[in-house]
Every structure is written in structure tokens, then in C-alpha cells.
Amino acid sequence: MQETIIISLGGSLIIPEDIDMEFLKEFKELILFHTKQGKRFLIITGGGGINRKYNNVARSISNPSNDDLDWIGIAALKLNAELVRVIFGDYSHPEVISDLSKEFSSDKPIIIGSAHKPGHSTDFDAVLGARTLGAKKIINLSNIDYVYDSDPKINPNAKKIEEISWQDYRALIPSEWSPKLNSPFDPIASQAAEEEKIEVVIMNGKPINNLANYLNGKKFLGTVISW
Q1: What are the distances in angstroms from CA 168 to CA 19, 126, 154, 187, 194?
Q2: pLDDT one-digit tens code per residue, 143-172
Q3: Is the peptide bond before 207 cis (omega within 30 degrees of 0)?
Q4: Whole-structure pTM over 0.85, yes or no?
Q5: How far apart are CA 212 and CA 7, in angstroms?
Q6: 9, 22, 23, 87: which sits with the fewest CB atoms below 10 Å from its CB?
Q7: Pairing between strand 40-45 and 110-113?
Q8: Which residues are CB-neighbours of 175 under 8 A, at least 6 positions away?
Q9: Domains of the chain, earliest start first
Q10: What are phi and psi of 4, to 5 degrees?
Q11: Residues 67, 69, 72, 78, CA torsion sign
């Protein structure tokens, strides 16, 4: 049976401020290498810097609701999704799939997903995609190395966590989602992943060798969250 790998590709890697072309080239090369080994990928993109800029302008000029800000974020990540789809060319399914809760199929080795409605982050869409495809592992790629027991930006003594249960992880993060939430894996997605018994690996997408190590079954830097 063909292995399906779910990747939640953080917008902070695609477009931290400007589009990171070097990262995208390396990411494409690595993913295509593994498709030739028989793997299939579902990649769900985040919004990144462009989403942050639009949200900041909206807050400065108006008083947007969380749903308003989420709709802006969805538009931003759909733009990123189309970029990633085009980058993979003929290896990718010809359309970005927005509603990952519905059954979908493709004869292509790479499928790109985006978002369907407000109320959660890309993380939740990755869980939806995993549930639909029957996958039990998600790679969450962002710009952080590990989950920590407290915010390392505030607490210099924060300790990295290499393995943690969903119960203990959910105790570390807020219980509710908001568009401003800064959490390695959002609370709505975490609850759903725990219910589905899905393992999530939190890791930094840079350097790309870290992801390569994981895909090759070698030692990698990151946090494994499981039940």
C-alpha cells in the first residue's frame, strides 16, 4: 500500500516576509525525490507574512471580527497553495483542494490543500486531510525547533520537549483558537488529532536536511506528540 504523508507547511517557511525561493526549491527537490520512492504527499499551506500584513492593516483601520481575520488568512494561504501547486507542476493534482473533510482522490503523487472556513488554522485542515485519507501521522513544518514547556521568547530557561502526550501537550496551550494565536499546533486541531489517534511531529523546516532525516527514518530534531 502506498504511504501517504501529510505535511502542514507553515506560511513562515513559504513567505516569512518575502517569498523564500531558496527554501521552496529545496523543499520541491526533497519531496520529488520521495515521490520517486513511491510515497504520496498531501501538503497543506499556511498564510505566512502576507497574511500577517493584511491582518495588521485590517486591525489598524477597522475593528474586524475573528471570522473576518480568518477569511483574510484563508485568502492568503490559498494564494500560497496555488504557488506550491504550480511549483510541483505535473506531479501535483491540478486543483487545490479546499474542503479536506470530503472524500477526494488523485492519480498524482502530490496533492495541495488549503482551507475551507474560519475557526481554526492550517493544522486542523491537516487533521481533516489525514482523517479523510486514513493517515495517522502529520509533519508540522514551521520555524520552531521543538515544543517547549513555556515560551522560550519570554523564558530563557524554557525546556525543549522531544516527546509528549496529547493530554500533556493540550495542558500547555490555550484551550480556544484565535487568528492571533501563536501555538505549535492549534487547540482545535490538537483535540481532533487526539480523538483520531494521529501522531504529529513538530519540526523546523530549515535546514531542509532535518525533514530529509525524518523522511529517511533517521534521527531528527523535533517534538513528537502522540496519545
Answers
A1: 35, 21, 21, 12, 11
A2: 989 999 888 888 889 999 999 999 999 998
A3: yes
A4: yes
A5: 13
A6: 22
A7: parallel
A8: 187
A9: 4-226 (3.40.1160.10)
A10: -110, 125
A11: negative
